[in-house]
Specification:
The structure is a homodimer. Chain A is an alpha+beta fold. The first copy, chain A, folds into 2 domains: 2-114, Distorted Sandwich (Protein Yojf, Chain: A), CATH 2.70.180.20; 128-234, 3-Layer(aba) Sandwich (Trna Endonuclease, Chain: A, domain 1). The first copy, chain A, contains 5 helices and 17 strands. Chain A has helices spanning 8-20, 128-137, 183-199, 202-205, 219-227; strands at 2-4, 24-36, 40-43, 46-52, 58-61, 70-72, 77-82, 88-94, 99-105, 110-114, 121-125, 147-154, 159-165, 171-176, 209-214, 231-234, 243-246. In chain A, strands 1, 2, 3, 4, 5, 6, 7, 8, 9 and 10 form a 10-stranded antiparallel sheet that branches. A 5-stranded mixed sheet of chain A has the order 12-13-14-15-16, with helices on both faces. In chain A, strands 11-17 form a two-stranded antiparallel ribbon. In chain A, strand 15, helix 5 and strand 16 form a beta-alpha-beta unit. The two termini of chain A are 20 Å apart. The interface between A and B is large, with 64 and 65 residues. The structure holds a DNA duplex.
DNA sequence: CGTTTAATCTCGACT
DNA sequence: AGTCGAGGTTAAACG
């Protein structure tokens, strides 16, 4: 359904109906958006594209950028009402965290409502999970003599990507990054190495090695890494087999 | 401009024209999306909403979620062509990083092209930067007797949010988080405290305190914090209940 | 539920 | 251009 410059009553009814029947809805035109929740925001009245998906997620797009200016990932309550000046409002509420997005429509240029078939298969190559698999199967590509001890080992402060032993018998903590490693990645590795050292007898603590495996590393990160006595090794993911991510709906439409 | 079920030639011409004149464009209907760049992805043919903004950013939305299925934050080159089966294709290319999104349209249900006035003022309240300002101006709300020494003090491994002195004359390192603090925040604070201790004479090192200021803290983080002899103090950016108790909130929603 | 972490993160700021 | 760090991050995985 396409409505050009709908009047208030038409917009209101159409919105209610479309929300009720869980359609994909868009309203394009001047509006004002207020958000209160984890933070608070207020847009001056301007032209935006309001997009409401069948799963209840809401986003308001401006003229620039991939990010919406306002959004609501999940809505527990969607309401269409009128404000004190009789303008049509869309309220998207969420509990936990308590959040409210309130959109006031002025003179919408366009409203669209249609059924959007849920997407099919989506295949992504080159994820970190795939790199884990690749590295697990061929640890010696990082360094001769490495043997896998654990994968995703919980260590109190998070999970260690790869926990291994080197040819000399030393414990090795490996952190994998799918793209260029930054200082944050170094901090993360450092955190895991410290945790392991604390859990081992003092005699073995000094022997614990930390390796950052990534296709590249930033210059400051490398400096920091060396200061901490940790190591960097080039590791690039060559995806062998696409990982299938089924993006099925949260609920079925009857 | 609104085109319902446009044929190939109409879609192609309209797309070219709209891109040329930097309009906001949407094409809704079955299509296939291929992405190659930092990773690689492939969508099976399905119904999507393709959104092209005047700034050249591109996003492809499915039926669920705030995040697009595919996107391109910046495009250096936008092209409309035909594939080997004569289907209309939209190519969005980007250099640095080298990325390509390729959309093949099958039988579009709808195409929209319109001018979208750039957004007006957008005000966000409750950012971490604002929390810094608020805390700086009222350090004693955290603890009586605290006096500011430095803000954003660099210490090699990053900047200390707030560097202060307590009533007893001890140095205090304060780390601020705008939302619930995790173990990573604790580790960050730990790094700063250690750095400060190393820079001070041994006599003063033991007296250095570390405070994590956030609205909340996760249970494991709290445990870790206490183990390290650090402290947590509640600090919220936004007033909890502004109307019932008109207590002076740190941030006002104008 | 809460917690943690990857992400084609995006986006802005700073060097 | 490169790097860093916040974000109403989102979203998924795991306990």
């Amino acid at each position: 359904m396409i409505l050009e410059t709908p009047d208030k009553a038409t917009l209101e009814d159409a919105l209610r109906l479309a929300i009720e029947s869980r359609e994909f809805v868009q309203v394009i035109g001047p509006c004002e958006v207020v958000y209160v929740g984890r933070a608070a925001s207020l847009t001056e009245s301007g032209e935006y594209v309001v997009m409401l998906k069948p799963d209840g997620s809401l986003q308001v797009h401006g003229a620039r950028g991939v990010k919406p200016i306002n959004w609501q990932p999940k809505t527990d309550d969607l309401r269409v009402t009128r404000d004190e000046d009789d303008r049509v409002m869309l309220l998207a509420e969420r509990r936990s965290p308590s959040e409210l997005v309130q959109i006031t429509f002025f003179e919408p240029r366009l409203m669209i409502a249609l059924e959007l078939r849920d997407e099919k298969v989506f295949q992504l190559h080159g994820s970190e999970a795939q790199m884990h698999e690749a590295l697990k199967r061929n640890l010696s590509s990082l360094e001769i003599g490495l043997t896998l001890l654990e994968h995703e080992l919980p260590v109190g402060v998070g999970d260690i990507d790869i926990y291994a032993r080197d040819a000399q018998g030393c414990v090795v903590v490996i952190e994998i990054k799918r793209s260029k490693a930054s200082q944050e990645a170094v901090h993360q590795l450092e955190r895991y190495v410290s945790a392991v050292r604390l859990q081992l007898p003092p005699l073995f603590s000094a022997g614990v090695r930390g390796i950052l495996a990534a296709p590249d590393i930033s210059k400051p990160a490398r400096k920091q890494l060396e200061r901490l006595g940790l190591e960097f090794k080039v590791f690039t993911a060559l995806p062998e087999e696409p990982k299938t991510v089924p993006q099925t709906g949260l609920f079925e439409l009857a």
